[in-house]
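As a next step, we paired sequence with structure tokens, yielding the entry below.
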Amino acid sequence: MTTPRILIVDDSAGDRELFTEAFHSEAPTLAVHSVPNVQQAVGELQVAHFAQRSFSVLLLDAMMDGEFPSELLRFIRANPTHQQLHVAVISTAISPQVTQEYRRFGVEHFVTKPSSWQEFLAFARVIQTTFLQTGQQSPWGVLAIGAPGDAHGRR
């Protein structure tokens, strides 16, 4: 079985480090990559595609220096390699307008960004045990994004 891989896209170096440490605490063999912006995330996904080593989960900060990551979501939707990628949009606060924009790209659930070490560990545990080990959808809002009306029953 291939080691699950997680890509964290967040402009906060501290949050990227906390997510990484939490995932390594819960699953020491998990491959965790993190980048500070959309451009580098697209690059990581391109490398993963060509190396045939796709990511299992993408943690995406909803607002990075005011940037909406539409380029990244378009890239994921356009590339069959990444259509099974599970995406968790994380944010401390998100407006209805931003939520609507993400929904346009097939993202239907949002996760409140952890604010303590215990919450980071709990988040990592839920992703690890619920999704990575069982393949089920997480109550934290992880879902595969794909074309409307795809095989997963999403609109």
